[in-house]
């Protein structure tokens, strides 16, 4: 204690002396300063304390440096606010005047007729598994056998698709901002808006596929994969192509550190869910339930779909034309006065659509180069290319039935794959934002502007015939 006290006196004495000598030197010159300093006796210096204790006990020690708060990024905040705003607009656009058209649009008559039979407990031959039609029943019972009742379940599932796609992208790219932007893109893209406003079975299919994918991506244990298998069963019970998402199970099981052989019981569980829903539909229509009967029905259904190899439908299109948006479907069109029409189309947001196609091409080129470097120089494939590969594999899996077969196909078969492609685009925009935030903001503003331009074609708002032709300038678009 005495050593520290003496040390403090010495430091104080030297500080005062230095100040005095400096002031005197300014008036009397350096000689006086030197004389004064020589008159000061040197006191013995005590042993220096350890650095940590000195920093704690020295009252004249310099304060620790304070790290300044990061500068507020107004452009980044604007991008976030715009994404949230676009999400809100997307919700509104899915429900505004949902009762229009008052009559059936595109293939709605098939599935609404099925739902009517289920409500009446009447036997019905299904062109597809029953769940896609069963989900229409609750809203029809509440809101009646009209447009709103037919389409409400699709609109609600459309909201689920937005959230699930955002979760998938956030996990794949390990970036919550990419997830937010993906959800915003889906919210304002007309491809998803138009199907959320139509009583078709593609929305239930896509929602269950995304739910299964999200559970496998975020899995913390095998229970999550069991939940994913349940969702696969629901997807297959809506449309058989839903089974394709199960092709990703081995990849995602290995990604989670689990054995790929768990995919076997996942397939079995999904099959049980599928059979249970089929049995429930038979019970609802008061038909006998038997495994042999259900297998016979599914075999007949398989033969029915296998016969769709004649491309005689004007709305059909090949899978390789979908990224180029060659042939969107005009779902409804009616004249409402001289030079005025109301129409709905599955055409997407042009900027987002072709931006996604460009992102797919860039991802393919980047992945090919990474694989070539890996084979040539044994250089590890970067994480960004692995993420792109997962997205591309997922898109391919969902399109596989139409790539491998000659079955008649339509652009709505691209719905699930396109949503994942929007995630790929979002990851690119987020990467651009880190370097040129104004460019990312400008892209979002432009995408919002394109959606506003095409909104009448997605919600069936009255427009001039001239405006209709300007929005759909190519014959194959209308």
Describe the structure.
The protein has 478 residues and is mainly alpha-helical. It has 2 domains: 2-57, no CATH class; 74-477, no CATH class. The chain is built from 20 helices and 3 strands. It has helices at 2-28, 30-38, 51-57, 74-95, 108-119, 131-134, 137-143, 147-172, 176-188, 190-196, 202-217, 222-236, 249-255, 262-284, 291-306, 350-377, 383-404, 415-435, 437-459, 465-471; strands spanning 330-337, 340-345, 463-464. A 3-stranded antiparallel sheet has the order 1-2-3. α4 packs parallel to α9 (176-188) and α8 runs antiparallel to α9 (176-188). The radius of gyration is 33 Å and the shape is globular. The N and C termini lie far apart (93 Å). Mean pLDDT is 86; it is low at 1-63.
List the keywords:
disordered N terminus, 3-stranded antiparallel β-sheet, 65% helix, mainly alpha, 20 helices, 478 residues
